[in-house]
What we know:
By secondary structure, the chain is α/β, with parallel strands linked by helices. It is built from eleven helices and six strands. The chain has helices at residues 2-5, 13-27, 30-39, 56-64, 67-70, 74-90, 136-148, 157-161, 183-186, 232-254, 272-278; strands at residues 48-53, 94-101, 123-130, 171-178, 211-218, 221-228. Strands 1-6-5-4-2-3 form a six-stranded mixed beta sheet, sandwiched between helices.
Amino acid sequence: VSIINTYASKMSQEDMLGETSYWLKQQDGIKASNQLLASLGQVNALPSIATLSLTQELTGKLLRECNHVYNTQINDLLLTALGRSVARLTLQPTVHVLLEGHGRESEIAVGVDLSKTVGWFTSMYPVKLDLSSESLALNIMSIKDQLHEMPHSGIGYGALFGYLAEELPRISFNYLGQLDNNALTQSTQWGLVNESSGVSFNLDNKDHHLININGAVSNGQLAFSIVSQLGVELSKRLAAEFKRELELVITTLSTAPRTYLSAGDVDNIVSQACLDRIQSSSEISGVYAANSL
């Protein structure tokens, strides 16, 4: 806790300005985005639930045959599919989502050793997804570069800005990873079940989010649950759109004949448009600035 409390004070002025600027860009437009989301349907007191799942075959392709095409991580592809799905419902080119991480993706601070700790250092942070292009390829590269530029995997957002409800998106997304890849699921005596665990919080504790999306890979299948306060119809529509976009991402990338670089892969030495021209006819491994040699 003390590390987070002193997070800002230990940053250089340049790093502070850079990280603050990044988060201000992610916050831009959140209020309007939340208002539009709430207008899509009548906000109900009782949430509705929709689910979706992919086959083991499609899940396997997503995990093993897709990321190399645009040098992505799975969250880049999941958020691209989700962003395109929400944008289709709102008819807006930008989508704000609140992401949740376990806080162990990178060092919280220089010199802090997490190897002797257990549990999560839960971090929450907003992202603004740009879906202004109809091109799936451009959507993937844009969102990938944006997420990969995120300072310290988002751990600093709460330390710098706090968690005021009006400054956070009302769509929450959390991908829990591959639950098959641990000792629990490989044991013959213990296993995960899909049974309800009952009410885990007081019903008077109202959820700020209008849409909660949680997913994981279990038994070789990617599955998501969508809990919405906007009604059954919207929940089902979003689940159907999300599944359709996921399948489009998987079928497109798993059959791609080659790889492509984004501007972020070459440290933004050239623009994406320039890079697209350079790699239009063949793969390239990098772009380097000219020097006196």
